[in-house]
Amino acid sequence: MSNGSPFPPPRRLRGTIVLAVLAAVLVAAGAGYLVLRSLRGGGAPPGAAHPAASASAGDGHRPDRKDGKGDGSPGNGSGAHSGKGNPHGSLKGKTVLIDPGHNTRNHDHVREIARLVNIGNDRKECDTTGTSTDAGYAEASFTLDVARRARTILRHQGAKVVFTQDGDRPYGPCVDERAAAGNRAHADAAISIHADGSAVGNRGFHVILPARVTAGAADTSAIVAPSRQLGERVAGRFVAVTGSAPSNYIGGGTGLDVRSDLGGLNLSTVPKVFIECGNMRDPKDAAHLTDAAWRQKAARGISEGITDFLTS
Ligand SMILES: [Zn+2]
């Protein structure tokens, strides 16, 4: 649960992520056959790159990536790289910030976490206790477990992984500190891991992207676009690896939401998203969230999305 106020209307993509990726793969397969006959040295054909990104165009502008390769530039290789067969790019030299949402001991520190902190455009609680399943499995336990599993995978890929908390603090940290941790680490990508607490029947995951916020200490102008690219890749991989459907109650089927009320996003200066992995209050989703094998898949989906973002 991401401690929210009312959700802003979701941005709609032109199609679902799944359909977009499928279409891009089909196009890439057909185009690749023709192009590879005439090109020497391989590389993906034009149009094969960034299938998820090219399907969104939600904000109408998509700056070139930091490596100087714009979407669709030949030789990028990300079209092939996005295939299921090659999730293992090297992350040597990359830093990933993982923020396990909440803290298992927050409920013992109600006063401390109720302190208001400045998130740029508002003041919010330092932190919240999070939600739990009906049987009492805490969101904070879930987030820490998935985060640790993702850390193992990303370290195996060569990444430096920084945590905001590792079950080693009496409470928190506060949301502003969670953002600052990624900034201090100069993280190449940052993700905050959560599970939602919504009504029974509301199912599936969604990824929350930062809105453009310029207020007080918040200025997300530079991270809105790369965060969307990160979020699209995480959502795409999460679908593929876990088999979970995008949320049926937020994001209009895209699995993506945009919010301006989260300090962890507002105060970030590095590309960052939140993921709500499922709804702890729905019995069917809860069955997944409490299953260690499913959590491993969730961690793999998240890690592969980050890897895609950092290597494409
Ligand atoms: Zn949460």
TrEMBL record:
<keyword id="KW-0812">Transmembrane</keyword>
<protein>
    <submittedName>
        <fullName>N-acetylmuramoyl-L-alanine amidase</fullName>
    </submittedName>
</protein>
<feature type="compositionally biased region" description="Basic and acidic residues">
    <location>
        <begin position="59"/>
        <end position="70"/>
    </location>
</feature>
<feature type="transmembrane region" description="Helical">
    <location>
        <begin position="15"/>
        <end position="36"/>
    </location>
</feature>
<feature type="domain" description="MurNAc-LAA">
    <location>
        <begin position="179"/>
        <end position="307"/>
    </location>
</feature>
<feature type="region of interest" description="Disordered">
    <location>
        <begin position="44"/>
        <end position="110"/>
    </location>
</feature>
<dbReference type="Pfam" id="PF01520">
    <property type="entry name" value="Amidase_3"/>
</dbReference>
<keyword id="KW-0378">Hydrolase</keyword>
<keyword id="KW-1133">Transmembrane helix</keyword>
<dbReference type="InterPro" id="IPR002508">
    <property type="entry name" value="MurNAc-LAA_cat"/>
</dbReference>
<feature type="compositionally biased region" description="Low complexity">
    <location>
        <begin position="46"/>
        <end position="58"/>
    </location>
</feature>
<keyword id="KW-0472">Membrane</keyword>
<dbReference type="GO" id="GO:0030288">
    <property type="term" value="C:outer membrane-bounded periplasmic space"/>
</dbReference>
<feature type="compositionally biased region" description="Gly residues">
    <location>
        <begin position="71"/>
        <end position="82"/>
    </location>
</feature>
<dbReference type="GO" id="GO:0009253">
    <property type="term" value="P:peptidoglycan catabolic process"/>
</dbReference>
<dbReference type="InterPro" id="IPR050695">
    <property type="entry name" value="N-acetylmuramoyl_amidase_3"/>
</dbReference>
<dbReference type="GO" id="GO:0008745">
    <property type="term" value="F:N-acetylmuramoyl-L-alanine amidase activity"/>
</dbReference>
